[in-house]
Amino acid sequence: MDKKLKYNVSQMAQMAMLVAVSIVSLYVVPLLSFFPSAPFLQYDVADVPVLIGTMLFGPGSGLLILLLVSLIQGITISASSGWIGILMHFCASGMLVLVSGLVYRKYQTVASLIIGLVLGALAMTGIMIPLNLFFTVRFMGAPYEFVKSLLVPAIIPFNLIKAGLNSIFAGILFYPLRSILVKLDLLAPPRCKLKK
Question: How far lies 37's CA from each of 11, 84, 152, 177, in Å?
Answer without folding.
Answer: 42, 22, 12, 38
